[in-house]
Amino acid sequence: MDTNGFDAISLNNVVKLYGNFVALKGVTFRIPDGGKYALLGPNGAGKTTTLKLIAGLLKPDHGEVRVYGLDPISDLESKKIIGYLPEDATPYRNLSVRENLEYIAALRGIDDVKDKVEEMLDLLKLREYERAKVARLSRGNLQKLAIALSLIHRPKVLLLDEPLNYLDIPTQEEVISLLNKLGRTMLVSTHIMAVAGRLTDKIIMISRGIVIWSGSFEELKGMANEGEPIEKVVARLMA
Ligand SMILES: Nc1ncnc2c1ncn2[C@@H]1O[C@H](COP(=O)(O)OP(=O)(O)O)[C@@H](O)[C@H]1O
Ligand SMILES: [Mg+2]
Q: pLDDT (tens digit, 9 = 90+) per residue, 78-102?
């Protein structure tokens, strides 16, 4: 598959309706290969909708979504290059950690299932829990498993929907350092500025279904008045 020369992700004037409600009102942005971007916005802004469109789980009503030039709805090749962590990821509760990894690896048609499972157990520090049933895992370990399931096919692009939700501070730190080590294209949705700053270097800010600002953290800091915290700048842009 030749994916060179394409943006990792591009949205061109994307509109998404739920019934009569317009959730996305013409969203346009592009993320280059290797870019680490935050999709920042308040609850209800349209972050989850945007990620589902990129993951090919929703179809745009208007406009175009591309992942390395592929249409995530109709080009099945795109499934191989996209890793998606849903907002409330739910691994199979009655399977163990290892069984979840083996099952998803098999479903994804990975050749070296055994090696990949071992790699994920080590990467996410889940080996200690490999035989534990998901139903008995802590919230933090459940989230680590969900991240492992989104990574197991080595996707080129990672879509993470509020990846630090519900995690205690030590587990947040663990997940942050893990994600920072991965070194691949990432789009991370969050409503928390501090989370965006720890995981990414560029921001796409959305509110009420439109992109209201995009740029680097440096640019955002440059917009602050003397002594003003960056959160205030964000709040002002979103008002
Ligand atoms: N399945 C749905 N049916 C109707 N409205 C929805 C549905 N999913 C989301 N919405 C609405 O679309 C808007 C954007 O939702 P969402 O993408 O989940 O935002 P975010 O992830 O930023 O909180 C919200 O107003 C939400 O209530
Ligand atoms: Mg959401």
A: 999 999 999 988 899 999 999 999 9
Q: Which atom of ligand 1 is nearest to the CA of 50?
A: 17
- Residues 16 and 46: their CA atoms lie apart, in Å, by 9
The per-residue pLDDT for range 44-59, each reduced to its tens digit, is: 999 999 999 999 999 9
User: What is the C-alpha to C-alpha distance for residues 235 and 139, in angstroms, rounded to an integer?
Assistant: 30
Domains (ranges, CATH) in the chain?
9-238 (3.40.50.300)
Rounded distance, CA 20 to CA 40, Å? 25
Closest ligand relative to 58 C-alpha: 1
CA 80, 81, 85: angle at the middle one, nearest 5? 95
Q: Name which of 87, 60, 55 is nearest 191 in CA terms.
A: 87
Residue 135 and residue 212: Cα distance in Å, rounded? 40
Atom of ligand 1 nearest to the CA of 41: 22
* Residue whose CA lies nearest to ligand 1 atom number 17: 46
Ligand 1, CB within 6 Å, residue ranges:
18, 21, 23, 41, 43-49
